[in-house]
Each structure stands twice: as C-alpha cells, then as structure tokens.
Amino acid sequence: MSLYQVNNWIKISALYDEMSVLDARNGVYYQLNKSAQIMWNAILNEKNDEESLKAIYRQVDGDKEEIQNEYQDFKKQLINEGWIKRNEG
Known about the structure:
two-stranded antiparallel ribbon, Coenzyme PQQ synthesis protein D (PqqD), PQQD
C-alpha cells in the first residue's frame, strides 16, 4: 500500500505521454511535465519515500541529492495544495 493517496477533488487524466490534473475545488487544470509525472507516480505507487526515490532514480539521470530535494519539495507542494494526503488505511 502506498503512503499517499489522491484527494477526492483531484481528477487525473493521462493520455499517451501527457498528464493533466483538475482541481475540482476551483476548476483549474494543470499540466505535469515528465519529471513531475515520474515523481507523482512514485509518490502514489510506492510504499515509502525510500522506495519512491529508488523508482525515480531508475528513470531520471542526475545528481541524487538534487533529485531528492526536488522530490521533497514537490511532495510538500502536493500536500500543501491539498492534492494528496497520507493514506489512512
């Protein structure tokens, strides 16, 4: 079971290599770039941050410390914006 889940008011549309997010609270659509998509999928599909980062490292080339910082910032933003929450189950 993953550590986080998407809140009910967030709707995801994934088609080919593009991912859109609708925040139904305000009707605003967001487009996630490829790096954000990789992080989004890791956050929602892995059981903890360590496993999420391993999944990201397999798909993204770059400095691991920088990737880790970007991951933490992205996850914090998702939580603060109310897109995701800790899985209660």
